[in-house]
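Internal tracking record. Fields below are filled automatically when a chain is submitted to the structure queue. Please do not edit lines marked as system-generated. If the sequence contains nonstandard residues, flag them in the REMARKS field before resubmitting.
Queue: standard
Priority: normal
Entity type: single polypeptide chain
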Amino acid sequence: MIPKLLSPNGVNHKQLKYKDERAKVSQKRYFDQHSHPQPNLHSGDPVLIKLDGEKGWKQPGVIMNECAPRSYNVQTTGGQVRRNRRHLRFCPSGYQHPHEFMPDNTATEQLEFLPVPETSQNSESKVQPAQPLQVPTDSNPSSSTMRGVPGSPSLPYVTRSGRAVTKPSRYHE
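SYSTEM-GENERATED OUTPUT FOLLOWS
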């Protein structure tokens, strides 16, 4: 084998540095197009916390103090945590946190599951799904007529197939 083929080729450091700087400038230009400064938070401000991998602003907290220019100590139900400003969202004073909404379990409490009647000859080999049956718990006829109405605030909407549809927490009043 030829020894010249085994010798390493040198890297042009000037050209490599120039490409890196050009990539940094381009990336900064595109990032700055859509970024804006966030207002500072003060001690006692209510906030919601969301980390990068999470889907929604769920965990409530209260700002304790500012540690660094964009870093805050936040008191949560699980203890005190330190978070960057981009992981915190200010809550208005009248805002009700999503965890304070109690799930409406009335729909699942009022459903009884009964087996589907057998209609075919060889039905013993097939497993039949259960169908929900609405059982009114009170004698008030107006509440049973409100069941399944999409505008009803306390009862979830029940579809034709019997599935109880509950609104996401962000749509609760």
